Amino acid sequence: xxTRYTSSGGRxxxxxxxxxxxxxxxxxxxxxxxxxxxxxxxxxxGFKAYLVGGAVRDLLLHKIPKDFDIVTNAxxxxxxxxxxxxxxIGKRFRxxxxxxxxxxxxxxxxxxxxxxxxxxxxxxxxxxxxxxxxTLNALYYDTAKQFIIDYVGGVKDIKKKIVRPVISKKIIFxxxxxxxxxxxxxxxxxxxxxxxxxxxxIKKQAFLLEPVSPSRLTxxxxxxxxxxxAARIISACSDHGLYMxxxxxxxDLMDSSKEFEKKYYDSLSELDSIVSSxxxxxxxxxxxxxxxxxxxxxxxxxxxxxxxxxxxxxxxCRKFILPINPPRVELEYAVKFCLKKRGYKIPAKKRxxxxxxxxxxxxxELPKTSLxxxxxxxxxxx
Length: 382
Description:
Blueprint: E1 2-8, E2 11-19, H1 21-24, H2 33-44, E3 49-52, H3 54-60, E4 69-72, H4 76-82, E5 86-89, E6 95-100, E7 103-109, H5 125-128, E8 139-142, E9 147-150, H6 154-160, E10 162-163, H7 172-175, H8 178-190, E11 193-194, H9 196-205, H10 214-226, H11 230-239, H12 243-246, H13 248-256, H14 258-277, H15 283-295, H16 306-320, H17 328-341, E12 357-358, E13 361-362, H18 368-371
Parallel strand pairs: 4-7, 10-11
Antiparallel strand pairs: 1-2, 2-9, 3-4, 3-8, 5-6, 6-7, 8-9, 12-13
């Protein structure tokens, strides 16, 4: 094991531990080759670049990461100049997305948290690490030297299977309540235990999720459904008093009906089996796990009006999953899937023929001459 030192006030201080290949055992073949290309190009241009966060955690746990996030000292505009297949995103803090076919790699610049800054202020690696949420996500991997750089004891916490915060408990969830969901998700999905004081704090401050925007809650719930561990994560969220802010209607029904609770978790477990065996499952299919057990609670008459039944079920399901707001087409797919399972076949929508556009005017009649084919060509004039 190596150690990184820094000088402060004329004294040499221990800054970070460095784990070598022999100590961490990360296999290069488990790293996406396009992520390696991005890092190599940044290094070749004179910048420093590392894998960071969940990718390093998963590699240490001998898992193939789904995402490979990269951090660098290059600023967004300089990154974009190096990669034509990229775009800058974000308002509060600008990031770069680099595209390789369907794959998207997120590249961020080291951020500073000095003076409480959370905006577009760039910093150094030792500043960047102190604004990451949990120690298991605060590791940097140097792909060239094959070193893990650990400022916060993240490697030891992963070995101990414990979730521990980097940011002070006084402000970690007040700054961003969604961190509570992430902490519980990391613990449940990796079979780690939350630090006792952290678990108590989440239960105490769960109410901070109430004002969080529906778009952020939707994003987090979709990540949970994509994880392949949704049943376990949602159960842990429920135990910590968080799920009532993600799916209040479902949480209320689970509290009042053990039968509903069992069906709900059975649907989630079925989804986990599907997701674990295929990465191509569409979102609409995943959403069925949230509504399937609820549909039987919707009262509707057995009539021949299948379309009417569908519209009623759709409206009720839309209200049931609030504040989550997934794309309409995906929720429509989920409702139709669940109804088809119950013997209702929803007819496809009839497509209207396209309205002709003539001389920039929609709906204008086409001139007859453009539709008529002369029976006999006129004789040529000389």
